[in-house]
Amino acid sequence: MANEESGFKLQRARLPGLGEKNIFGLYSGPIADTTTRSWDFNNRFMPRRRSERKAWLYLGVFSRDFYAGLAIVDAGYIASAFSYVYIPAEKLFIEDKLTMPLGFKSEFDATLSDSWRLGRYEILPTAEKFVVNIRGKYDLSATFKRKGNGLSTIAPSSADRPFHFTYKEMELACEGEFIYNGKRQKFAGDFGSLDYTKGYPPRRTEWNWLSMIGKTESGKSLAVNLVDKFNEGIENALWLDGVPHALGAAHFHYIRPAEKSIWRIITRDNVFEARFRPFGARGENINIGVMRSKFVQPYGTFDGVLQLGGTSEKFSGYGVTEDHLALW
Question: Is residue 209 included in any domain, yes or no?
Answer without folding.
Answer: yes
